[in-house]
Amino acid sequence: MAEEPSREQGAVVTEAAPTGQPRPPQSAAAAPTRDLRPQLAMNDDGDDEIADVAVKIENVGLWYGAKKAIDGVSLDIPRNQITALIGPSGCGKSTLLRCINRMNELIPNVRIEGQVSLDGQPLYGPDVDPVQVRRIIGMVFQKPNPFPKSIYENVAFGARINGHRGDMDELVRKSLEQAALWDEVKDKLNQSGLALSGGQQQRLCIARALAVQPEVVLMDEPCSALDPIATQRIEDLMQELAADYTIVIVTHNMQQAARVSNRTAYMLAQQDLVGHLVEYGRTEQIFTSPQDPRTEDYITGRFG
Ligand SMILES: Nc1ncnc2c1ncn2[C@@H]1O[C@H](COP(=O)(O)OP(=O)(O)OP(=O)(O)O)[C@@H](O)[C@H]1O
Ligand SMILES: [Mg+2]
Question: Counting C-beta atoms within 10 Å of the first and last residue's C-beta, which end of the chain has fewer, N or C?
């Protein structure tokens, strides 16, 4: 993650939002055609309406130079839930994810249209500091990328830059606990983060992202470099983190999207069509009764 000094001017983004919103009661959803429920997120609220929107994406388009990569994407992301972005390679999932925390602006010649808001506050505006946006909306990448520093310093790094004034030992411990890594590393905090296994490195990167106390955590294929056991740990961890954070995950693994997410967005780019949103809904609905035949083709493996 590109870290920059972040106590600069101009941040309009607010403090973390309240957590633990009550879930609306189950509504009488249409009976699924195939019952995949054992594989689906257990906390499906059964409601097609999103009661509490954390991130609102409105008509977002993005060009890399002259090439448009995504077009007209609008999406409401619910607070304290897990939202999955799925779709074939090149459809713009990572691009859309990076629009949420303004990371695309680190790429030269990128142009973005539309708006993304967090808690009703626009993130694209003249008086918003993108560095502050990236602090409040953290990111975890496909390939674990710890810094060549100790485990302790990996976690403390961002908090130090942010001028954290509290007890740093406590923050490091809490972040590692939240990332389900503390027990494995508590006796070797001064060892290099690079000496950990791939799955441990990814949890270290999650701890590093959590240490700056974000509100939203974006994960771009966080398990694709991990074995099944490490993957399961990260999936379990995501479920736990959703109590406190809003999570958006990009995954190629349909089972993973079905297992962990509450809502799923299916994106597609075709020859003449720039990457766009085809369908978005409760994960159970997307996987059991998709409204668009292109979604059905993808989730049943006929396409992509
Ligand atoms: N830095 C970049 N410069 C130019 N074009 C880019 C850049 N990053 C992505 N693209 C293009 O934008 C489109 C969307 O790419 P993106 O990486 O968002 O897709 P994706 O859905 O994440 O794919 P994958 O599943 O393979 O990761 C692709 O056509 C890609 O070639
Ligand atoms: Mg990608």
Answer: C
Which phi and psi angles does 171 have, rounded to 5°?
Answer: -65, -40
Q: How far is the CA of 27 from the centre of ligand 1 (A)?
A: 38
Ligand 1 atom 1: residue of nearest CA: 107
Cα 30 → chain centroid: 28
Per-residue pLDDT of the chain (304 residues; tens, 9 = 90+): 444 433 333 333 333 333 333 333 333 344 344 444 445 555 566 777 898 999 999 999 999 999 999 999 999 999 999 999 999 999 999 999 999 999 999 999 999 999 999 999 999 998 999 999 999 999 999 999 999 999 999 999 988 988 888 999 999 999 999 999 999 999 999 999 999 999 999 999 999 999 999 999 999 999 988 889 889 989 999 999 999 999 999 999 999 999 999 999 999 998 889 999 999 999 999 999 999 999 999 998 887 6
Query: Quick check: 149 and 192 in contact, CB under 8 A?
Result: yes
SS3 223: coil
* Residue linked to tokens 């309009």: 12
- The number of the ligand 1 atom at minimal distance from the alpha carbon of 91 is 21
Nearby residues for ligand 2 (ion, Cβ within 5 Å): 94
User: Residues with Cβ within 6 A of ligand 1?
Assistant: 64, 69, 87, 89-95, 107, 275
**Paired strand residues for 63:** 68, 111
Contact 39, 259 (CB under 8 A): yes
Single pTM value for the model? 0.86
Whose C-alpha lies nearest to ligand 1, atom 8? 95
In the numeric block, which tokens belong to residue 200?
Answer: 């441990």
Q: Which is the closest atom of ligand 1 to the Cα of 250?
A: 22
